[in-house]
Design goal:
By secondary structure, the chain is of the alpha+beta class. The protein has a single domain, classed as Trna Endonuclease, Chain: A, domain 1, CATH 3.40.1350. It is 40% helix and 19% strand. Strands 3-4-5 form a 3-stranded mixed β-sheet. The relative contact order is 0.13.
Length: 122
């Protein structure tokens, strides 16, 4: 696989994630619009892969996302990269996809159980 096709796979996953987050909050994702509230980071740039520009959306969606579209899994390396790119007060999130599979979300277990506890309805 060429470098260009690997980058295209990664870019497609980042676009998919950005579109999903945009849909959750009823906003438009337009990668060509430099003022769009949510953006996919360009390949090779430092930082999280899905960038939220809008302050309100940034506060409502407390995740800094690392996207990986690979056939092999280096789980703890992905987590380390996500943590390194996560700003203080936010949560890291890894979204991994491989060919012919649905994307999966990897997050801190304590945070997951905090979410479940908040939403259990007590």
């Amino acid at each position: 696989m060429t470098t260009a096709s690997r980058k295209a796979k990664g870019r497609n996953l980042q676009y998919w994630v950005a579109k999903k987050v945009a849909k959750l909050f009823d906003i438009v994702f337009d990668q060509q619009d430099d003022l769009c509230e949510i953006h996919s980071r360009e390949m090779g740039q430092a930082g999280c892969d899905v960038y939220i520009r809008d302050k309100t959306l940034y506060d409502l969606f407390p995740y800094d996302i690392e996207c990986k579209n690979t056939e092999t899994v280096s789980l703890y390396a992905y987590i380390a990269q996500a943590k390194a790119n996560t700003k203080e007060g936010r949560q890291w999130l890894v979204i991994h996809k491989k060919n012919q599979s649905q994307p999966i979300v990897i997050m801190d277990a304590e945070h997951f159980f905090d979410i479940v506890n908040i939403n259990k309805g007590d």
